[in-house]
Specification:
7-stranded mixed beta sheet
Length: about 230
């Protein structure tokens, strides 16, 4: 995600009526668990933010949407892998082509062609993220890039790296908010789920992106009960 994105007129893809419908369905589904929230006041009621939750299970996304709305009355935009259903973009999905998805292609020529398509698609995605931040939107990205139960997976820094570049390009300062998740049980009805929201971080408080990612990893471990 290092190439500079093309800047175009911004138009929000999310339709709040669809996001509301998804939230109501998710709220019903999440009655399977008992939710315990710490630090909910750290979620911003206005302005842009990059929210970085621990990713344990698919249901995390339902949980995040319900609780974000409960504390902020806002809908978010979720970075998701290409290949998921396109209608999820109407609920706030933002598609990204991941390098590991391309590495799985065995044919060399096909892989090269896919790399070219991925670069163009990801440049458009980065421009869209710029527009989200400029419009004061919430962006949610799971920094592990996939689900890891009972441990913290390796963090992917591309989305954070893009934010640092966007802040310089756009003259903005956007908070990054780590969120820890801890499940007492994934299977037992009524099991507690702990949703721990950390205080905002700012990229300019760190020497570089690697130092920021190290700090983020430490906070996610502690907030998720993995320290």
């Amino acid at each position: 995600m290092s190439a500079a994105p093309e800047h175009r007129d911004f138009s929000l893809k999310r339709i709040d009526a669809f996001a509301c419908g998804a939230r109501l369905l998710a709220a019903g589904a999440m009655r399977y668990h008992r939710l315990a929230v710490e630090g909910g006041s750290n979620l911003p009621r206005e302005g842009p933010a990059l929210i970085l939750p621990k990713h344990c299970a698919y249901r995390d996304i339902l949980l995040e949407g319900v609780l974000l709305y409960r504390f902020t009355r806002r809908y978010a935009n979720y970075i998701m892998k290409v290949g998921l259903w396109g209608f999820l973009e109407l609920m706030g999905g933002v598609k990204v082509v991941r390098p590991k998805d391309i590495r799985r292609i065995a044919d060399r020529e096909q892989r090269r062609a896919e790399i070219r398509r991925a670069r163009a698609a990801n440049q458009q995605m980065q421009a869209y993220l710029d527009g989200l931040y400029q419009s004061g939107e919430l962006v949610v990205s799971h920094p592990e890039g996939m689900r890891y139960q009972d441990k913290l997976g390796p963090l992917q820094k591309e989305v954070v790296e893009h934010l640092v570049q966007a802040e310089e390009r756009l003259g903005m300062r956007v908070p990054l908010i780590p969120i820890g998740l801890e499940y007492d049980s994934y299977a037992r009805p009524g099991a507690q789920v702990y949703f721990r929201v950390d205080e905002p971080l700012y990229a300019d408080s760190f020497a570089n992106v690697n130092e920021l990612m190290d700090h983020l990893g430490n906070r996610l471990r502690i907030l998720s009960g993995l320290a």
